[in-house]
Amino acid sequence: MLIPCTARTRRHPSHGATVTLLCSDKPEVKYVALRNVLLLIQKRPDILQDEMKVFFCEYNDPIYVKLAKLEVMVRKANAANVELVLSELKEYVGGRHTEVPRNWPQD
């Protein structure tokens, strides 16, 4: 089920601006915000902890935004949200986002 970005996340005063940027209509803005989130979670892994759903891939996100969102989800996954993350990843593999499994970087 695809839920609009603004409706699926709770806003917190300390990171509302970041969430707003992640919900932008412009993929370039989303990408820059995602790269900044990746830098922030290196220092503060708990930041945006209750906002995991904002990192879920939208069908119309370009592949570079989807891969950045996946990287954030993987880094923020923990015991409290692992079922939510795995459920979302299953949807990606199941066909809703067919380009994601094909383009996932191989280490």
Describe what you observe in this structure.
The structure is a single chain. The chain has 107 residues and is mainly α. The chain has one domain. The protein contains five helices and no strands. The protein has helices at 16-22, 27-43, 63-76, 82-96, 99-103. Helix 2 packs parallel to helix 3. The radius of gyration is 13 Å and the shape is globular. Mean pLDDT is 80; it is low at 6-12.
Which properties best describe this structure?
107 residues; mainly alpha; 0% strand; 5 helices
Distance between the termini: 31 Å
**Share of helix, binned:** 40-55%
Count of the domains: 1
Number of strands: 0
Low-confidence stretches: 6-12
Mean pLDDT: 80
Q: N-to-C SSE series? A: HHHHH
Structure in a nutshell:
This protein is mainly alpha-helical and 107 residues long. It has helices at 16-22, 27-43, 63-76, 82-96, 99-103.
Question: Which secondary structure elements does this structure contain, and how are they paired or packed?
Answer:
Blueprint: H1 16-22, H2 27-43, H3 63-76, H4 82-96, H5 99-103
